[in-house]
Design goal:
Number of helices: 11
Structural class: mainly alpha
Oligomer: single chain
Distance between the termini: 24 Å
Order of helices and strands: HHHHHHHHHHH
Number of strands: 0
């Protein structure tokens, strides 16, 4: 059975919402990592929650490729190698969860994860503000010690709901990354992790022919979003945008929980 069984006739408004969400993916990958929680909420609202994770994954990979092309020289590879083992464990746990969870369970889980990610984002920002007054070396050491826990949570949330962005953003900020190194490290991290998730998603039936056809139509909208993000990254009011992202994430999470 197709992952998109029963959704072959999307309305114009539904496709428009998915296209806009695809544009937000591109924008988030080149400007504000983690903003694609908005896209996650839209995809899970328009499509069956379980299938939405498989449809969104190739869209995210397109955004990841564009982000790597833009910021490929700014990655910090020691940080990436430190994270990957724990992320792999989290992805494995998330895969087992998806093997047994039905659509209602996944929808509820995504809603809860969205609310958790909103809380994480608020905590991340406040922790970063406090860290500015502390010694950078102590902060970096704490971040290295926290890598396994961030990695496992990031791997699980990215496998189940494609929602690892806020977790990784919190980790990278706590490690003292500046804007370009933050974006470069994040770009390579999610390109590698999201690509590694494809076989699992295919095996779970989340990615198939019909879902890839929808992806082919939506991928075109990622490009203008990424170009807009690249143009805005040095001008954007980060604090205001994060507040908007948090608000949209909370509303999306509540909508899924109450649906």
């Amino acid at each position: 059975m197709s992952a998109l069984s029963g959704t072959s006739a999307l309305t114009v408004w539904e496709f428009g919402a998915l296209a806009l969400a695809a544009g937000v993916v591109g924008f988030s990958k080149t400007a504000v990592s983690g903003a694609n929680t908005i896209s996650l909420a839209v995809f899970a609202a328009v499509l069956p929650a379980r299938a939405s994770t498989g449809v969104l994954l190739p869209i995210l990979i397109v955004g990841d490729v564009l982000a790597v092309l833009t910021y490929r020289r700014h990655a910090h590879w020691p940080t990436l190698w430190r994270l990957f083992p724990a992320v792999g464990a989290g992805v494995a746990v998330g895969t087992v969860f998806l093997m047994f969870a039905d659509d209602g369970t996944v929808r509820t889980s995504i809603g809860a994860i969205l609310l958790l990610m909103a809380a994480v984002t608020v905590w991340r920002r406040r922790a970063a503000e406090r860290a500015e007054a502390e010694d950078d070396q102590a902060s970096g050491g704490a971040a290295r010690l926290a890598a396994p826990s961030y990695g496992v949570l990031g791997g699980f949330t990215t496998m189940v709901a494609n929602a690892g962005g806020p977790v990784m953003s919190m980790y990278l900020l706590s490690a003292g990354f500046k804007k370009l190194s933050f974006l470069g490290t994040s770009a390579w991290f999610f390109l590698i992790v999201n690509t590694s998730k494809v076989p699992f998603s295919v095996g779970l039936g989340l990615i198939d022919g019909p879902s890839l056809l929808l992806d082919a139509a939506l991928a075109l909208f990622v490009i203008p979003g990424a170009l807009l993000g690249k143009a805005c990254v040095n001008r954007i009011n980060q604090r205001l945008f994060e507040q908007l992202v948090i608000g949209a994430t909370v509303l999306g999470g509540l909508q899924l929980l109450l649906r």
